[in-house]
Amino acid sequence: MKPQHILITGGAGAIGAQLARQFRQHHPDADITLVDLNADALASVTGPLAANSETCDLTDIDALPDWWQSLVDRRGPVDVLINCAGIMDIMSITGTGWERGKRLLDINFTAPMRLMDLALPTMVESRHGCVINVASMAGRVPIRGCSYYGGAKAGIGLASEIARLDLKKQGVNVITVYPGPIYSGLESHARSQVKKGPVARHIPTGKPDVLAEKIYRTFRKGGARVIYPDIYSLAKQVANLNLTHRAMDFFSPQPNQ
Asked: What angle do CA 192, 196, 201 make, to 5 degrees?
């Protein structure tokens, strides 16, 4: 498809910024809107790409409909929605607490679902559109210290896969992305929350530009999902086997609290 208006949440982050560069490279005439809470970081990305910037707190779920309508009125309908914004904490379920846990749920699950709800009616009506949801391998296998994050990513991953089934005959594609660790601010923050050791040091970690390229290639082909780094494809295939659960129980880094 030839996109007209691409919206990327988490646009100031490592993955979101690389996705913006990929889409700008291949679609120089498209409008690109990058959404983030960090206005300064956002400006450093949008400027070189001639993209629009939108500062938005995605945890304010009730405010999203009015914000969305304002955006559409100013810049036109969104025909590519990329739910890339995410936060991660590696803490025990008791150490996380409800307030931090709710924020993890809101940003990683509730906000992407609400944005899909707002974007999809126009896409379905025009029979033209794509949603790309960045889930996580942490939503496929149990990782110690990730009850809220893993639960949210499991939710958005499964919802995304079901949405693809619901919409595949209506001209709208839905792509689900399952990254393992990717060098980024999110990854470095999460790494700081676990005890140092060989597992934390040597866990396979991917590059954001490579992930963005794989996502864009899947978009062009109308594909269903992306798993990266490639070694995590095996974990997805055997995610329901006891062997994988036992392995993750043994190899998961220990959270600091």
From this structure: 90
Domain housing 71: 5-251
Domain count for the chain: 1
Q: Kindly report the pTM of this predicted structure.
A: 0.89
pLDDT class for 232, splitting at 50, 70, 90?
Answer: confident
Asked whether residue 256 is assigned to any structural domain, the reply reads no
Tell me the CA distances in angstroms from 135 to 50, 60, 112, 154, 160, one per residue in order.
Answer: 27, 20, 10, 7, 9
Do residues 226 and 214 lie in contact, with contact meaning Cβ atoms separated by under 8 Å? yes
Alpha helices in 97-231 (DSSP H): 98-105, 111-126, 147-167, 185-191, 198-202, 208-221
Q: Is residue 190 part of a domain?
A: yes
Tokens standing for residue 151: 């639960």
Q: What is the pLDDT of residues 135-165, one digit of tens each?
A: 999 999 888 899 999 999 999 999 999 999 9
- Say if 257 falls within a structural domain: no
Q: CB of 182 within 8 A of CB of 211?
A: yes
Name which of 66, 68, 79 is nearest 35 in CA terms.
68
**For residues 188 and 190, what is the distance between their CA atoms, to the nearest angstrom?**
5
